[in-house]
Amino acid sequence: MRSVQLGNLKLDIPIIQGGMGIGVSLGNLAGHVMKEGGMGVISAAQPGYNNPDFARHPFESNIEALRNEIKKARDIAKGKGLLGVNIMVAGERYDEYAKAIAQLDIDAIISGAGLPLNLPELVEGSKALIAPIVSSGKAASLLCKRWISRYNRLPDFIVIEGPLAGGHLGFSWDQIRNHQLPDLKEILADVIEQMKAFGKKVPLFAAGGIYTGKDIAEVMDLGADGVQMGTRFIATHECDAHQNFKQVLLDAKEEDIDYVISPSGFPGRGIQNTFIKKLTAEGKIAVRRCVNCLKPCNPANTPYCITDALIEAVKGNVEEGLVFTGSNGYRLDKLVSVHELMNELIEDAKRWLK
Ligand SMILES: Cc1cc2nc3c(=O)[nH]c(=O)nc-3n(C[C@H](O)[C@H](O)[C@H](O)COP(=O)(O)O)c2cc1C
Question: Does the beta carbon of 170 sit less than 6 angstroms from any atom of ligand 1?
C-alpha cells in the first residue's frame, strides 16, 4: 500500500477511520488506528455527553472532552499515524467549534454534513490540514472554486462519500425515492474529472461501503489515493461504543438496515429497532431537553432529538436509541482488534492492487 502525502504530513497507510458520532469514535479507536499507521478520527459530535455539566454547557463540555480524547489517542499512538477531528457543518456553533478545535493538538479537520465553505478562515494560524466530505463532483468543484477565490487555498485532501455510508448521507430523499443514487465509483470518477480544472493534485479518499481490501484496491485502481471507512471499525474491541452497540450490528441482518429520517434534513442510515418503529408509527418522539446540536433542527417541531437518541444508543440502550450503521453493517460477524482489521485490509488490498 502506498503512503500518501497530505500537505506536509505523510500518512503511511492510506486508510482513514471515519469520524463516528456520538461517541462511537473517540480517542481509543482513533489512537489504535493511528498506531497502525492510518488516520484516526475523533467525532466532534457531542463527545462531552458524559460530562455532568453537558446539558448546561455543551460547548465547554465537548471541547474539554475533545482535549482529553486527543491526549488519549496521542498516548496510544506513540507518534504513529495522523489524528483528525470530524466536525459536522450542520452542527450548531460550527464556526466556534472549528476555531477552537483547530487550536488543539490535531493533524486534520474533516468536515461534512454540509459544505465547509468558510473552513479556511476558521483555522487560520493553525497547522491542521483541512478536508471537506463531498458526495458529487459538482460539490467538490464548487467548494474548491470558493476556497481558491476567497482564500487562495485548495483542500489538503477530499473525502468522497457515496450512498452506502453510515450516519448522515449527502443525498436527498428525492434521489433515494427516485432510485437516482449514484454509485461511489461514478462519484469518484466525476470528482477526479472536476478536479482537473484546479491544476494541482489533491489526494482523494473514497468512502461508503468500503468493506474489504479488495474494495480498497478497486477504488485505488480507479484513482483514489486511499479510503475512509466507518462501519468496519465499529466491530473492533477498541471502538468507543458500548458492547451492546457492537453486538446489535453483529446480530443484524440485511433487512434490519434502512434509511432513517434525521432532524438535520439529511437522510441517515441505521438499524430498524424499537425506536425507529415507534418513530414511524407515531411520527414524533417528544423532546426531553435540547442542547442545540443541529442548525436545521427546531425543537418545537422536530420528529425527535437526535442527540438524545444517539447518546442512548452509544451508552448501550440499542432498542430505544438510534444506531447508525453503513449499509454493510449486517456483514460484520465478529469482533476483532484494530491491529487485526488493519492487517487484514492491508494484506487483502495488496493482493488485489493492480
Ligand atoms: C455510527 C456512525 C456514525 C457516524 N457519524 C459521523 C459523523 O459524526 N460525521 C461524519 O461526517 N460522518 C459520520 N459517519 C460516516 C463515517 O465517518 C464514514 O464516512 C462512513 O460510515 C463510511 O462508510 P462505511 O461505514 O460503509 O465504511 C458515521 C458513520 C457511522 C457508521
Answer: no
The pLDDT score that the predictor gives to residue 301 is 84
C-alpha cell at 221: 485502481
- Dist. CA 332–CA 324, nearest whole Å: 14
Domain 4-242+332-352, CATH 3.40.50.2300 — does that match?
A: no
Is residue 1 a contact partner of residue 350, using CB atoms and an 8 Å limit?
Answer: yes
Three cell numbers written together for 228 = 475512509
Q: How much is the pTM?
A: 0.97
Among 83, 88, 339, 354, CA closest to 233: 339
The strand pair at 9-11 and 4-6 is best described as antiparallel
Residue type at position 35? K
Looking from the CA of 170 toward its CB, the CA atoms found within 13 Å total 26
Pocket residue to mutate for ligand 1, from 231, 314, 345, most atoms within 8 A of Cβ: 231
Contact (Cβ atoms closer than 8 angstroms) between residue 134 and residue 79: no
What is the spatial distance between Cα 178 and Cα 255, in angstroms, rounded to a whole number? Answer: 20
Query: Relative to the CA of 241, which ligand 1 atom is closest?
Result: 1
Cα 130 to Cα 91, 175, 226, 345: the distances in Å are 17, 29, 16, 26
Q: Is the CB of 131 under 6 A from ligand 1?
A: no
Left if phi > 0, otherwise alpha if psi is -120 to 50, otherwise beta: which for 247? alpha
- Tell me the per-residue pLDDT of 175-199, one tens digit each, with 9 for 90 and over: 999 999 999 999 999 999 999 999 9
- The answer for residues whose C-beta is within 8 angstroms of residue 271's C-beta and 6 or more apart is 248, 249, 252, 256, 257, 318, 323, 325, 329
Question: Domains of the chain: which residue ranges?
Answer: 4-242+332-352, 246-314
